[in-house]
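Fig. S4 source data, part A: sequence.
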Amino acid sequence: MPLRRLFLAAAGLALVALALFGVARQSPALYPAAADDARWVAVVDHGWHAGLVVSAADLRAAAVAIGREDAAAAATLRRLAAVHPTATFLEIGWGEAAVYRQVRRLEDLEISLALRALLLPTPSVLHVVPLAAPPAESFRRADRHYLALSDDGFAALARGIAETAETDADGRPQDLGPGLYGGGRFYAAEPRYSLLHTCNHWIAGLLRRAGVPASWATSALSSGLMAELAWRTDDRAL
């Protein structure tokens, strides 16, 4: 076989493998849950990155459940929720620190800043926004999908959020200042952002922890993540 064909065949097999990454991770014990017993989460598409919307009450309940095994993660969740005590829902996003905090619209993104974010591992941040209304009302123009998680599935997802927040010596999330909208706040986060771990990869990773088969390859862009989740959406939620 000519070298070119061999290379193309290998590349094709690699792409197939990447596209399937995460599919085998579905766990019936975590997802999907029966509608009446579900902990609902929503994924909202903002055009170039996605956000995850959770019930604030569910997040606090997950902190109690997690606390039996991981007191530090439980404390982080309680402190994140306590910043917005009157919120009914919380939208949580993650991304590259400079881009997320400075660029409000994709068309305003400078090429040099984008290349630095993609080609070099750079610091990251969490973005936590309080919502008084469900996603359908809070983000009327945004594409969104709903997923029904079991208690254990939601706890796994919540634990992943807690592990993302970088805490200080006292175990408190490091507040970096006002968020982009709605009274949100930015917090220092980990791991570092890179081409191999983007904002949408982060959400897909949380969903895989919760038993949802969200693949790494398709979640490089929010459009790919949303297209995959369209197969699993349930519009009865939130």
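Fig. S4 source data, part B ends here. Strands lie at 39-45, 50-55, 89-96, 122-131, 144-149, 175-178, 185-193.
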